[in-house]
Amino acid sequence: MAANSTIAAITARIVERSKPSREAYLGRIREAASRGPHRSVLGCGNLAHGFAVCSPADKSLLAGDKAPNLGIITAYNDMLSAHQPYETYPELIRQAAREAGGVAQVAGGVPAMCDGVTQGQPGMELSLFSRDLIAMSAGIGLTHNMFDAVVYLGVCDKIVPGLAIAALTFGHLPAVFIPAGPMTSGLPNDEKARVRQLFAEGKVGRDELLEAESKSYHGPGTCTFYGTANSNQMLMEIMGFHMPGSSFVNPGTPLREALTREAAKRALEITALGNEYTAAGEMIDERSIVNGVVGLHATGGSTNHTLHLVAIARAAGIHLTWQDVSDLSDAVPLLARVYPNGLADVNHFNAAGGMGFLIRELLKGGQLHDDVRTVFGQGLEAYTVEAKLDENRRVLRMPVPEESGDPKVLTRIETPFQQSGGLKMLSGNIGTGVIKISAVKPDRHLIEAPAKVFHDQAELNAAFKNGELTGDFVAVVRFQGPKANGMPELHKLTTVLGILQDRGQRVALLTDGRMSGASGKVPAAIHVTPEAKDGGPISLIREGDMIRLDAENGSLELLVDAAELASRTPVTADLSHNEFGLGREMFAIFRQMAGPADQGASVLF
């Protein structure tokens, strides 16, 4: 099944735009691949260090350069619920590798912070930068030149994008991403949000709030709402980095273990030592990137990926722009409703048909490129399945049912929840930004109101507590961009603005920072660039200026006379309080070197 003419045309322009950088990239990884098994270039002393702790059998295999060696890059820690299951994965992978005639070694660990812990805290200012640090850390592990393929163990917000950047930087090596799955369903997400609002209004205490939060986040696995972490899993499957049907299987189940073993064996099958060599950088091309963007729109996924997908694409020499993302949104229908874009969680999504159903419907509508390479070795048609266990506890894949298990959660291409995707680009005299509209009611897509200006999210929260946020307004929270303070998520504002909206006020957020990957019902123009620290137009806004945010037409305008605007001087802010504490002093070079949001807010590209 071929992609329709609109998807094909957008893909073609990305291909054309990317030709110089993509050709240079492919030249580099092909030259690296031409050197053959890389342990052959190591001296005896180098190799001896590399397998010193291996068993005699593994040493014999590695010394001969004929058996594949599988590198494991792990983001394990047992503070992140989504990453705790990875504690036992290396031994599972080593066992699977031995059964397949190969060897597996942990090549390195990468940092993995939990945005859920750092939301609203100073540590959140390191979150976005951790993506590039993760890519660098994975690079250190792979620099040993010991490996024929790599498996990547990561789930959450910046971890998977960082690992994907690393996988494509080492694009001559095959790469398989192995998920850990979502935690089982706990307190419904909408009930958790309700208790948060009650707490913010002083109607319940901390004990009640902590009880609700603990019932929602209660065990191993990914948080069950559809934020960045679960959007990551969707992306890795629809882009072909996962084995089919593996994204949303719960941790600690026999199927989860079988999928992990299968993924490890598959990684060994696609090395240059076999007949199905699948270099990650050759496998992921412009079509794969477009498929990822399409999946993001069709599921109402995380706004953070307007940053991450741009950076991931750059790692493969591909130039994806926000205009591409916006145009694809106009061409892709919304097929899933998962919190905050609905009441269901990702377990309900998976039970309704999950990724297999979604991919089948998008292929049917011509929204995806089927003719892509994947780690499974076939086009995306092979991903229109659900994974189960056979009588021998091996993975068995069956076609997904014709009908959704719950049409209110996952629908067919003929009956979309809306005709366009969940993300839109905004542009105007304030700059360029992004808005997630899949969870915003249509009567809130246009907000025209006076500005209330803040230079810190704490200032806005204090104004709320003091009863100062009356009437309709657009909250301008600036100096939150990558160069100012690392572009933290402003998730704590979700509750406050949600309360005001529920009271009948017409409110919106305008910021050069980020919102949560689970951005919800309040219209939010985020990632605005140029940022205030660079003297962008957002730094010209004054208290009381009228702002017009029009999500339908994609415009973001400061309704001030052009001559008046030209006469203004950009506001500056004292950012010294962002420079120290909880490690922020070590990231000064990142703040200085970070690129703009529409280019991925990266220090690498």
**Strand share of the residues?**
5-15%
Number of domains: 2
Uncertain residue ranges = none
The proportion of residues forming helix, as a percent range, comes to 25-40%
Using only C-alpha atoms, the radius of gyration works out to 24 Å
Category by helix and strand content: alpha/beta
Oligomer: single chain
User: Strand order, biggest sheet?
Assistant: 7-8-12-11-10-9-13-14
C-alpha geometry: globular
Contiguous helical run count = 22
Largest beta-sheet details = 8 strands, mixed
In round numbers, the mean pLDDT is: 94
What's the end-to-end separation, in Å?
34 Å
Number of strands: 14
Protein described:
Helix 10 (228-238) crosses helix 13 (286-299). This protein has 2 domains: 5-184 and 219-399, no CATH class; 423-599, 3-Layer(bba) Sandwich (Glucose Oxidase, domain 1). It has 22 helices and 14 strands. The mean pLDDT is 94. Strands 7-8-12-11-10-9-13-14 form an 8-stranded mixed β-sheet. The protein is of the alpha/beta class and 605 residues long.
